[in-house]
Amino acid sequence: MTTEPKLALVQAQLGPMANYVYIIADPTTREAAVVDPAWEIDRIVRYCESKDYTIKQILLTHYHQDHLGGHLMGQNIEGAAELVARVKAKVYVNKHEAEGVKRVSGLSDSDLVKVEAGDTTRIGQLDLKFVHTPGHTPGSQCFLVEGNLISGDTLFVNSCGRVDLPGASPEDMYYSLNHTLKNLDDSTVVYPGHAYSSESSTTIGDQKRHNMYMRFNNLDDFLMAMGYSR
After folding, report:
1. Is position 2 within any domain?
2. Residue 183 lies in a domain
């Protein structure tokens, strides 16, 4: 007798900036959430329809256009606003990211669910936890579900997100990597926001051993490595 898996997790590389979009689904209830929808909304919707998934939530790691949609590099990227218009789902953002999301996407307060560190939501029978990881942006967040971490532009395979963009903070990135994420179980599987490596996923344990940005014992050494100082 075959037992149906508790979690369906789909990773799709979409768009010209090597973005990963994720679909998290409960195979029993067929309820689903889409993480960082951008670039090919019709493809995302058609895939969910083919699996009989009902999209209940849209989860955003941060407000940059390549993860959210909006005007970028002279083109208008389809994103969360277009998906909301098609499936009527709510958009979950960290409370520190809400204004940026509205400014970039044109979404309104009524479209958003503002969350804080440690809040949870349910996708069918699955519990998902919001993990606030500022650094790349003030409201950057990761999503922890069934031992899997979708890490956005905070943690990449053997690297981390940029801290030289507006609103970024190298100090916050240090604590997000070397405290918040480093304290997760070593077996936690990490799914990043971009295909910047030949590996599409990793684990917290592997990153603690091999990712230089997670191997600093103090903030000053981290800042020096990043080209900053206090």
Report:
1. no
2. yes
The token pair that represents 60 in the structure block: 């955003």
Domain contains 108? yes
Where does residue 53 fall: left (phi above 0), alpha (psi -120 to 50 degrees), or beta otherwise?
A: beta
Q: Phi and psi at residue 62, in whole multiples of 5°?
A: -170, 180
CB 68 within 8 A of CB 36: yes
Q: Locate tokens 């979950």: which residue?
A: 92
Which residue type is seen at 194? Answer: H
**Three-state DSSP class for 167?**
coil
Q: Exposed, middle or buried by CB within 10 Å (0-12, 13-18, 19+), for 166? A: exposed
pLDDT tens column, 191-210:
999 999 999 999 999 999 99
Is 13 a domain residue?
yes
- Residue-averaged pLDDT of the chain: 95
> Alpha carbon of 53 to those of 11, 75, 85, 176: distances in Å?
15, 30, 17, 33
- Per-residue confidence (pLDDT) for residue 228, from 0 to 100: 84
Query: Taking a C-beta distance cutoff of 8 angstroms, is the pair 133, 180 a contact?
Result: yes
List of the chain residues with pLDDT < 70: 1-4, 73, 230
CATH of the domain at 108: 3.60.15.10
Phi, psi angles (nearest 5°) of residue 132: -75, 120
* Residue 142 · residue 35 · CB < 8 Å: no
Measured CA to CA, the distance from residue 184 to residue 205 in angstroms comes to: 9
Measured over the CA atoms of residue 37, residue 40, residue 45 and residue 50, the dihedral's sign is: negative
